[in-house]
Amino acid sequence: MTDRHLYQRPDTLNDALAILASGNWQVAAGCTDLFPATQRKVLDGPTLDITGIADLRGITRTDAGLRIGATTTWSDIINADLPAAFDGLKLAAREVGAIQIQNRGTLAGNLCNASPAADGVPPLLVLDAQVEISNPEGTRHLPLATFITGPRKTALAQNELVSAIHIPAAAMDGRSHFLKLGARKYLVISVAMTAARIAVKDGVVTQAALAIGSCGPVATRLPEVEARLIGQPIRPDLITDALVAKAINPIDDIRADKSYRKTGATELLRRTVERLA
Amino acid sequence: MKDLANEISLSIDGDIHRVQTHPGRRLSEVLRDDLNLKSVKIGCDAGDCGACTVLIDGAQHCACLTPAIQADGRQIETLETAEPQLAKRLQTAFLNHGAAQCGICTPGIMMAAMELLRATPHPDEAQVQTALGGVLCRCTGYRKIIDAVMAANQDGSALRIPDQGPVVGQSIPRLDGQAKVDGTEVFGADFTRDGSLLIRAVRSPHYHADFALGDTAVWASQHPAVLAVITVRDIAGENAYGVIPPLADQPALADGTVRFLGEPVALIVGEPSDVEALDLSDFPVSWTPKPHLLTVEDTGDDAPLVHDNRPENTLIRGRVACGAPDEALSDAAHVVTGRFETSYVEHAYIEPEAGAAWMDGDVLTIQACTQAPVMDQEETAKVLGLPRDKVRIIPSVAGGGFGAKLDLTLQPLLGLGVLKTGRPCHMVFSRTESMQASTKRHPGTMEASIGADADGRVTAMVFHGDFNTGAYASWGPTVATRVPVHASGPYLTPNYRATSRAIHTNGPTAGAFRGFGVPQAAITQELLYDELANKCGMDRLAFRRLNALADGDKTPFGQVLQAVGLQECLDALAPHWARAEAAAAEFNATHEDRKRGIGVASCWYGCGNTALPNPSTVRLGITPNGQLKLHQGATDVGQGANTVIAQIAADALGIGIDHVDLIGPDTGLTPDCGKTSASRQTFITGRAAEAAGRALRAAILRLTNLSDLTELTLETGQLIAHQGTQKRVIDLTGLAQDAHGYVLCAEETYDPPTTALDENGQGTPYAVYGYGAQIAEVEVDLKLGTTKVLHMTAAHDVGRAINPLLAEGQIEGGIAQGLGLALMEEYLPGKTEDLHNYLIPTIGDMPPVHSILIEKPDPEGPMGAKGLGEHVLIPTAPAILNAIRDACGAKITHLPALPHRVMAAMKAAT
Prior knowledge:
The structure holds two protein chains of two kinds.
Chain A: E1 7-8, H1 13-21, E2 26-28, E3 47-49, E4 59-62, E5 65-69, H2 74-79, H3 87-94, H4 99-102, H5 107-113, H6 121-125, E6 130-135, E7 138-143, H7 144-147, E8 148-150, E9 153-154, E10 161-168, E11 175-181, E12 192-201, E13 204-213, E14 220-221, H8 223-229, H9 241-247, H10 258-274
Parallel strand pairs in A: 1-3, 2-3
Antiparallel strand pairs in A: 4-5, 5-10, 6-7, 6-10, 8-9, 11-12, 12-13, 13-14
Chain B: E1 6-12, E2 15-21, H1 27-34, E3 53-56, E4 59-62, E5 74-77, H2 84-97, H3 106-119, H4 125-132, H5 143-151, H6 177-182, E6 197-203, E7 209-213, H7 216-222, E8 226-230, E9 257-258, E10 264-270, H8 272-277, E11 285-289, E12 314-322, H9 325-331, E13 334-341, E14 345-346, E15 354-360, E16 363-369, H10 373-384, E17 391-396, H11 411-421, E18 425-428, H12 431-437, E19 440-441, E20 444-452, E21 458-470, H13 476-486, E22 495-504, H14 518-536, H15 540-547, H16 566-590, E23 594-607, E24 616-622, E25 628-631, H17 641-653, E26 660-663, H18 681-704, E27 711-715, E28 718-723, E29 726-731, E30 744-750, E31 768-781, E32 787-797, H19 804-823, E33 849-854, H20 876-888, H21 899-909
Parallel strand pairs in B: 1-5, 6-18, 16-17, 21-22, 25-26, 32-33
Antiparallel strand pairs in B: 1-2, 3-4, 3-5, 6-10, 7-9, 7-11, 8-10, 12-22, 13-20, 14-19, 15-16, 15-18, 20-21, 23-31, 24-25, 24-30, 27-28, 28-29, 31-32
Helix pairs in contact in B: 2-5, 3-4, 10-11, 14-20, 17-18, 19-20
């Protein structure tokens, strides 16, 4: 039985997993989504704060690629020395709220919150991000696209938490870019956002990864459009309204309507790719 | 498991502070409540406004998003405790540049600025914008903040002191500014009496419903934290308040029926930490939802009535008519017609409603945010069933108002709490409560036709506006009256008919918001003027100049005007118009996907209440020990009344401004200066202050037997007067004291000469008008529909600029709100009840503003001055929308001009 006022901040991942197994806990890190969800002055519900676990924060190179610890903040990303394939992720980091939010908000929190407008998802999708999930039995990895299963829904089981995000070495090629469209400059939830990572060899595209967010229940890659770009010089004009419209499923909401999102997202994606040309 | 309460250690200003607190408590609460660091302001509790920005180990964080435990062992800096030298330089720069208006965002802004200035001592504009992007300001329009931060580390930044001689016309730093820039200002949430209880409201989750309360006594007994439950049965007086007494209809607590989402039905009172933590979802109330109306379109023939005694859901109608408009339109060489729709707009002051109350003897004393202390006193007394003199209102410094703090907000609720429990009480609205419960700008659905002759002279206009006034009357009648008076714009319109209707819905109550409906009407008129100018084949600025009102012209409501400075404003804009037009053409010649455009719009605005008495009274007294006290009852909500009124009084008396000691506002200490609304304080309270200053000067002349004063000073117990080489020293200690304790005193009242309007709206609704015009330069992305405002040029006729720095601050702040109205602000009840779904401009959205102050003195104004506060917002949105059409052809008829609406309008235009 877990009291709604309980709050735990363990030092190790093992302790955290043991606590998590003991009841119905919410996992807290930067709290940039948890606190806005309550009008109260104290975090509501039994809370497991994972920011005391030193191993969970930071960016490390591995043989397999790059590991981004779960509690790595957006500011950590901005300040890190990363290859050009991460330029899009850095641009997205600078668009998360404003500096106060970038100093607190974490990449893993952004993924676990699973908002359709999560700024981190499109740039991580184009990096083929794998989500490292820890549970009492060990760890498992899921592709980001599989991890987020719907608006505010993830594949996490109750006794699991995200411990890291891995970027495979193969996805660290090329350069990336990110654009966010909203009704004001800072502190804005996007109408649409696009990320692209493109690797070019001998003047032709060898890898193309494209993603769109805020235009459907979850952000999505665009494999059909990506395939079009391969084997040619960078050609934004190959990204057509019709092709993009097939890949996304936007809604009307207070920020924009469906038809605008379709054409706007396409234009934004063309510009994102154009910036890489 | 560990104990719930953990000890955390915070390193603050070199000391370690140990605090027992729940680890998951917001750091903002720990800093404010446990460590009394009240510069940390709470604007949203959601990371949307940045008012609680503090530095943790040197980096800016929202304290409201930080669990206390995450600050354990770290260095925390707030404005009170941060590096004193840097803080002082910033404070001086903020005062000199007029970068703090109400001051509620100032501490958060400064903390973000400090982080920047340590790393980058001499930042450029873009660096300032990025560093401060997370802190919202609703007053200043950010430009003076940018200037101040960039200037903070420049040498020689001493506080500006007034030049010798008269202070009217000088840009002196605001007299009440120091507390705003050092974090010590006491806003509504910053003060409680010892032992104060917390009040929370139980609010309706429905737009419209009947409800029945269950057994609240049993519920209370199950919740030991609850010391009292207050319902409509506890209301001893008349449970209907309002700003216009005959139409007062809003219950302090609903009685069986709720008419809008968030209407309060009960109050819970108890010890603060207990009541704060209560889950109110099991409060015993059963709801029976009823059909609801949210828009004017919903209020068709078969619509249910929001109030049984208001047929067709009509609160009131307004009308102004002259000449033969229908005939003139049919005879016109050119006619344009259009229909425009605006949205609910939220005031979004950064300070949610807050206050405290207690008994002082047998007087209920309420210290809370307000723009209208005397009305608060009258209406609160009425609701509570108390004699008026048993209620005292001390306005707390308001963290922005813009009209919504003109209505009662939490005053009667605070009073109910104190009367029921016999204990001091306090109440602080959450952001969502504030947005649900406060008034909004009226959504307008407006149609108009305007005609001109072959020479481009306007001959006629017909206008009708339906205004969604929401659940209760509030200021709906004022909007319905002001709009027909102003809908012609400041242009000669010989044949005219303007009608209006305020219509009830179950939306939030629409009330006063900077301009009382005139900004909405100006959008209609000024957008149609662009079409008409084009039809006439005239330059759009020249068309306005041709039709601009001038001295001696008669308005559609029959008033012959004096001191009309509009032509001067338009003439001042002419070179800027030419420059902007050339710049846009040059850009457009080389760009395909983005196009630039320019737009212009004008404003006029009557200062003071419409065709109603609205006097102000100012008292100026000298104490036996030689202190000069200015009883200044005009609430300063950031606009600067405390400074401007003092400047006028000082010059009228002929004494240095440093002698003036401000008192009030406080219904126990200051005579009635009316409401801070209708751009009336500089004009009306200013006139009373001028009269009081002159009367006191006359009394001093009589006492000293001098015919004039060339110098007047006060020293301890002495008044020293000079006339040239003659000197008189008056021993004040020997003089008799009046009832207020003054040995010399003057109290003067001014009420502007107006008349009631007849059935055709003819009369003299206002004694003084202000005028202005603005140019917007925008860039529209043709493929995304996004609009960037590049530059604004604003010329305003202020009659006499009492304090040019504060006047510019009003202009820039009004432009920011006008930009929001044009481009992003749309309050949708139930959907945008926070500051991440409801967008107001950030520091990155405000363009540079070039302000031009035109001074065409009005004989009726104090030293020639006219009002300005609301005028400045009126031209902005239509100028921007006209510029958008100029850039890309998109005719925006539904505000705000969100990107998808601009795209749709562009398509419709091709």
